[in-house]
From TrEMBL:
Gene3D superfamilies from the UniProt entry: NAD(P)-binding Rossmann-like Domain
Organism encoding this protein: Methylobacterium persicinum
EC number: 5.1.3.2
Keywords: Isomerase
GO molecular function: UDP-glucose 4-epimerase activity
Domain NAD-dependent epimerase/dehydratase: 6-213
Protein name per the record: UDP-glucose 4-epimerase
Statement: the UniProt record of this protein carries the keyword Isomerase: yes
Pfam family, one: Epimerase
């Protein structure tokens, strides 16, 4: 399928890359914008509207073959009330899906999150066969949006990406890059928790896989590159991209965790250093392949 795709969130970290990648793959992309700003380069057209107060939905979805919905309130917006997550991530998704169903859209691809499936850490590999157990307002809002999609007659697919890295990454990935660029040895060599990541390129390939897959799908899919890394391996890859040695000291994990919490970096420690391995079994069965090994992707990110 290389028809007309309506894309939300086209000015965000993931959406900007999706717009460029889908256009390069031959799709015509209509961006759905909240404000009448300049149309992003690569968009075939644009429609202005607000998903929380749906207007212009008929115009936005006219002749659209598929919707890729990447807009929403990000997990990085820590401290946001749970009602905000529900309004922007659950209710807005449900309204857009209902409008898409009325417009006869063939497929609806929703950018959910691994947090709809699990908490910040997991004892063993996470798969789509595991029951979803979100642990925070963000994860619950994404899971509730998936359930709202299941109540429609649409052929839908929800992508649950793990931590996404690429140019322009904010939050924990930005903090990790800052650590790698520091001129000092880092006391992180003793950390052994493995973490799944996914590159923007691999995530875009996953969206393309879902757009082209024979239907019906009507399911959620974990999106994760197949080679989870420890935090020391991530730092080593980033510093390799910077042309530097790893510079890692083997300090015990308990001491590192305590120091991170005392210096306000407890969330970074939990999100990157503690284990969360996820398997993209469903996407792999559909023929998806990651764009590059995670080590190579992190080194390239640092060089950029």
């Amino acid at each position: 399928m290389t028809g007309l795709v309506a894309l939300t969130g086209a000015t965000g970290f993931i959406g900007r890359h999706l717009l460029a990648d889908l256009t390069a793959r031959g799709y015509r992309v209509r961006v759905l914008l909240r404000r009448p700003v300049e149309v992003p380069p690569g968009a075939a057209s644009a429609v202005v509207g607000d998903l929380t107060r749906p207007i212009n939905m008929a115009a936005a979805l006219a002749d659209v073959d598929a919707v890729v919905h990447s807009a929403g309130l990000a997990h990085a917006m820590s401290g946001a009330p749970e009602d905000d997550y529900r309004t922007l991530n659950t209710q807005a998704t449900a309204r857009l899906a209902q409008a898409a169903e009325r417009a006869g859209v063939r497929r609806f691809v929703f950018l959910s999150s691994i947090r709809a499936q699990t908490g910040a850490t997991a004892a063993g590999p996470v798969t789509e066969a595991d029951p979803p157990l979100p642990t925070d307002p963000y994860g619950r809002s994404k899971r509730e949006a998936e359930l709202a999609l299941a109540e429609t007659g649409l052929d839908w697919a929800a992508l649950r990406p793990v931590l996404v890295y690429g140019p322009g990454a904010k939050g924990n990935l930005e903090a990790l890059l800052h650590l790698a660029r520091s001129p000092y040895p880092l006391p992180l060599g003793g950390l052994r928790g493995r973490r799944s990541l996914i590159s923007l390129e691999s995530l875009s390939a996953a969206v393309d896989t879902l757009l082209r897959a024979p239907g019906p799908l009507r399911a959620s899919f974990i999106a994760a590159d197949p080679d989870p890394l420890t935090l020391p391996e991530m730092i080593a890859a980033l510093r390799e991209g910077l042309g530097r040695r790893p510079g890692l000291l083997p300090v015990p994990e308990g001491l590192v965790g305590l120091a991170c919490r005392l210096t306000g970096r407890g969330e970074l420690f939990e999100r990157v250093a503690v284990g969360l391995v996820a398997r993209a079994d469903g996407l792999t069965r559909l023929g998806w392949q990651p764009a590059m090994p995670t080590r190579d992707g992190l080194a390239r990110l640092a060089r950029g």
